[in-house]
Design brief:
CATH topology: TerB-like
Number of strands: 0
Number of helices: 8
Oligomer: single chain
Structural class: mainly alpha
Radius of gyration: 15 Å
CATH superfamily: TerB-like
Helix content: over 70%
Shape: globular
Length: 151
């Protein structure tokens, strides 16, 4: 619930709240959490990769990263679809940033050493919702595979 509340506060600001995470970061974290659970298992390696990406992206501590991750997982559980996340990203990110988000999704998917067909399908669906060109999806997949698996 905290994630959705922070999105609502950000979209309709009454009083700025510096304690709330960046909504784009929160939305991309939710998409990564969705990828993490796409194959039906919560792999510790994927969870660690997601946490590492959150910490690198936000510059936060492991403790804050754990909180962001927990909020992202809760947001995904509450969500009816991916549109609430992708529409926010589309509104506030340029094409380059959206491609970077897709690359992060691939990194989470590759983290356990196995790209599941459900993960791949979901990433392609999210990329379509983010208006990322197919060539950029493939390129980001190759970069992520090389970064995670060294191939």
């Amino acid at each position: 619930m905290a994630f959705l509340d922070s999105l609502k506060r950000w979209l309709n600001p009454e009083v700025p709240d510096a304690t709330q995470p960046d909504p784009v970061l929160a939305a991309s974290a939710a998409l990564m959490a969705e990828i993490m659970r796409a194959d039906g298992t919560y792999d510790p390696q994927e969870r660690a990769a997601l946490l590492s990406l959150l910490m690198a992206q936000s510059g936060c501590s492991a403790e804050v990263g754990q909180t962001l991750l927990a909020e992202a997982e809760a947001a995904v559980e509450e969500a009816h679809d991916l549109f609430q996340f992708t529409s926010l990203i589309n509104t506030h990110c340029d094409a380059e940033a959206r491609v970077a988000i897709v690359e992060q999704l691939w990194k989470v998917a590759f983290a356990d050493g196995n790209l599941d067909q459900h993960e791949q399908h979901l990433i392609k669906r999210i990329a379509d919702l983010l208006y990322v060109r197919h060539s950029d999806v493939i390129t980001s997949k190759q970069r992520a595979r090389a970064a995670v698996l060294g191939t």
